[in-house]
Specification:
By secondary structure, the protein is an alpha/beta fold. It contains 18 helices and 42 strands. It has a seven-stranded parallel β-sheet, sandwiched between helices. The N and C termini lie far apart (66 Å). Keywords: Hydrolase, Protease, Serine protease, Signal. It comes from Camelina sativa (False flax).
């Protein structure tokens, strides 16, 4: 029996739907961003729901001048040394102290300076140093890269039914059945901790912990090994890097100094990736007896808490690297890392997660990370290294219409999650003057135009001034605002809102009736790439298509954590929550195909992705212009778990391909490559080697001028004797040809290369990107890769 904390209560579960934004990094410090907000007290129902939202910035805009960022006397710096020199971790750690001692002069000073030694998955260390000392160490012969300890942020039922994977959990066939629901897999989660008491982490029916597992559950602030079980088999935390760079250190009054989750993000991610079955869910709109579960419901979870409840959720690079280091050592099979930095083109920002992820992938551990929540802006995608599986977020086939009845016999539909009593016929008004809301809105419903001169209006402001409800007229690309419980916040598009606005101003008095929302599920509801989901191409490496794949990340049913007052609720949506959906599927694929590399798994997902939703409707994009999604919105498409189990062909890669990428981006020299691999004979490929030939499951040419030929190699993972023929859908106006005209596989040959020759065709000016695809088909398998082409006859001229 687990002990009960003072915060214990029956668990609330929610549809996650608050847009969780990125934080821009400026000189290693936070400059702006969005954060999850606490919601108002929940209803008696076990669930709470908040529409996808971006909280207001509050009074920060009113400040006369910005407060200068805190700069510690001894900032934390990270020194990356490549692959380990020694198999013995103790010797690796001793070598780190020796390097520090060479600059600081004594062993005592080196120990005082050291924050972390990374000596399991790779070699490096984090240390508190003066800038001059760090600069001196940067020139040490063993140091490959010096990084500042920047800050990263976290990016946050129906899901599995929607994907067609878990509609019949007792089915005798399919990926879930064939892998025994992920039994034996260990999924590592780097996030904000975990609330172990949730039913999502129950271990009923679990077998023994895998023998290769080396991890543990630590004892710390309101958490002990007794809080773990055969489901949650590892729980650690890392805070030294972040605390060293904060003006006010994190303490027990604001956080749990342990793996316990204070803000809820890690608990939601963990339950989404591998939550156990939780039966008899009740929530308005859900059918009786609904079941909540994760992607790999019988997999084990290991939590590595590296993110903390400050400034809306913050993680330091030094802490995240230590989490990677120990996760590799402990024996995780998959890593779900819902973190990221800024989309600004920055070598350092690209390295923050990419370097430790490369070492994990090189050991056969797939790393799944979010595309980011800076959408729908062009080139906003992050986590763009080719060894990372980068995930975009989509909506589900679910809608929450609210009926608005006008007293002139008209009816209109809005979107809301209002579950309170029906609001009888009440006068509705419209005003842009917010100075006297208490006088004009009391006892009335307010129609507000968020894109107007007055800007957004917080629903709680309307409520506090006596308003009965808010109808918010906004474009699809606008972020929604957090709504108080039992207060109707109804969102209508510009067309519907304009009609209502016209009626208000042409009638002497207009009254409306608001009914509680209803739920529509199924093919009548369009699936869209979420407006918050970041878009390609990569600003850092535009020749590598990102994101890779898309999965549901909006309105997911997940556990909530109780709080001190047992009233506050948290909700997260976006690529943070799409990431564990993919990570759970990856865990199942790894069990199904234990010999597949992380690149092969990624290829299987990308080449079988759906361009339509499960109902056959083309996936669209939410935000700005409503259009069909393309490769920069969702990569290979919406994930198709069952098809990915049997892709036919895969585009595989290994460390040599990744070195090719690093060298082609001028990130690595021969010296750095040999240090990365600890192989002195390893060098960068010849200068004639092109990044366009990297064996990724896509073809992206951002600066086409003349004729270009790219090469790809495919490996047959289907029937031994197979013949594939190409089906080319060339991007508009371009000439695209593939050679040879067929690929033949047999017992003696399971791998072959082909070339794709591309020319501008009819284009004579600098163009935007155009999209197409190449499919290799044997009549059973259709192995499709996206093609994205743009001409650049005038270099660096984009007008």
């Amino acid at each position: 029996m687990k002990r009960t904390l003072k915060m214990d209560s029956s668990f609330r579960l929610c549809f996650a739907a608050i847009a969780f934004g990125f934080v821009f990094i400026t000189n290693g410090k936070l400059s702006s961003g969005t954060t999850p907000h606490e919601a108002d007290p929940p209803q008696a129902s076990m669930f709470a729901f908040s529409p996808e939202a971006a909280p207001l910035e509050g009074d920060d805009y009113l400040a006369d001048k910005p407060v200068p960022p805190f700069v510690p006397e001894f900032p934390v710096y990270i020194f990356y040394l490549g692959e380990r020199k020694h198999k013995d971790a103790k010797l690796v750690k001793q070598s780190h102290f020796a390097i520090l001692k060479s600059v600081l002069g004594s062993e005592e000073a080196a120990k005082k300076s050291m924050v972390y030694s990374y000596h399991h998955g790779f070699s490096g260390f984090a240390a508190k140093l003066r800038p001059a000392e760090a600069e001196k160490l940067k020139n040490h012969p063993e140091v490959i890269i010096l990084l500042e300890n920047r800050k990263l942020v976290m990016q946050t039922t129906r899901t599995w039914d929607y994907l067609g994977k878990f509609s019949t959990p007792t089915s005798s066939k399919g990926l879930l059945h064939e892998t025994n629901m992920g039994s034996g897999a260990i999924i590592g989660v780097i996030d904000s901790g975990i609330w172990s008491e949730s039913g999502a982490f129950d271990d009923y029916g679990y077998g023994p912990i895998p023998k290769h597992w080396k991890g543990k559950c630590v004892s710390a602030d309101q958490f002990s090994p007794a809080d773990c079980n055969r489901k949650l088999i590892g729980a650690k935390y890392y805070i030294n890097g972040l605390n060293a760079d904060l003006e006010t250190r994190i303490n027990r009054t604001t956080e749990y100094l342990s793996p316990r989750d204070r803000i809820g993000h890690g608990t939601q991610v963990s339950s989404t990736v591998a939550g156990s079955f939780v039966s008899n869910m009740t929530f308005p709109g859900l059918s009786s007896g609904s079941i909540m579960r994760g992607g790999a419901p019988k997999a084990h979870i290991a939590m590595y808490k590296a993110c903390w409840g400050v400034e809306g959720g913050m993680c330091s690079v030094a802490d995240v690297w230590k989490a990677f280091d120990e996760a590799i050592h402990d024996g995780v099979d998959v890593l779900s890392v819902s973190l990221g930095g800024s989309a600004l083109k920055s070598l350092d920002a690209e390295i923050d997660i990419a370097i430790p992820a490369l070492h994990a992938v090189n050991r056969g551990i797939p790393v799944v990370s979010p595309a980011g929540n800076e959408g729908s802006r062009f080139s906003s995608v992050v986590n763009v290294s080719p060894w990372i599986l980068t995930v975009a977020a989509t909506t589900l086939d679910r809608s929450f219409p609210t009926l608005i009845t006008l007293d002139n016999n008209k009816t209109i539909l809005g979107q809301s999650l209002y579950t309170g009593p029906e609001i009888g016929f009440t006068e509705v008004i419209s005003t842009d003057d917010h100075s006297n809301l208490d006088q004009v809105t009391k006892g009335k419903i307010l129609l507000h135009f968020s894109a107007g001169n007055s800007g957004p209006l917080a629903p709680d402001v309307v409520q506090k001034n006596g308003g009965i409800g808010l109808i918010d007229m906004r474009s699809p690309s606008d972020d929604r605002l957090e709504c108080p419980v039992n207060f109707p916040c109804i969102y209508v598009d510009l067309e519907v809102g304009s009609e209502l606005f016209f009626d208000i101003h042409t009638m002497s008095s207009l009254k409306i009736k608001i009914s509680p929302y209803k739920t529509i599920i199924g093919e009548s509801v369009a699936s869209k790439v979420a407006k918050s989901s970041a878009r390609g191409p990569s600003a850092f490496s535009p020749a590598i298509l990102k994101p890779d794949i898309a999965a549901p990340g909006v309105s997911l049913l997940t556990p909530r954590i109780p709080t001190d007052e047992d009233t506050s609720e948290f909700a997260y949506s976006g690529t943070s929550m799409a990431t564990p959906v993919i990570a759970g599927i990856v865990a199942l694929l790894k069990i199904s195909h234990p010999n597949w590399s992380p690149a092969a798994i990624k290829s299987a997902l990308v080449t079988t992705g759906m361009k339509t939703d499960p109902h056959g409707e083309r996936v669209a994009v939410d935000g700005g212009n409503y259009k069909a999604a393309d490769a920069f919105d969702y990569g290979g498409g919406l994930v198709n778990p069952e098809k990915a189990t049997d892709p036919g062909l895969v585009y595989d890669m290994d460390i040599n391909d990744y070195i090719h990428y690093l060298c082609s981006q001028a990130l690595y020299t021969d010296k750095k490559v040999s240090a990365l691999t600890r192989n002195v004979t390893k060098k960068c490929p010849s200068s004639s080697s092109s990044i366009l030939d990297l064996n990724v499951p896509s073809i992206t040419i951002p600066d086409l001028k003349g004729n270009v030929t790219v090469t790809r190699t495919v490996t047959n993972v289907g029937p031994v004797d197979s013949v594939y023929t190409p089906v080319m859908e060339a991007p508009f106006g371009f000439s695209v040809k593939v050679s040879p005209e067929k690929l033949v596989f047999n017992k003696g040959s399971n791998k072959t290369a082909f070339t794709v020759s591309v020319s501008p065709g009819s284009h004579r000016v600098n163009t935007a990107f155009y999209f197409g695809s190449l499919t290799w088909s044997d009549g059973v398998h259709n192995v499709t890769i996206p093609i994205s082409l743009r001409t650049r006859f005038i270099p660096d001229f984009f007008l």
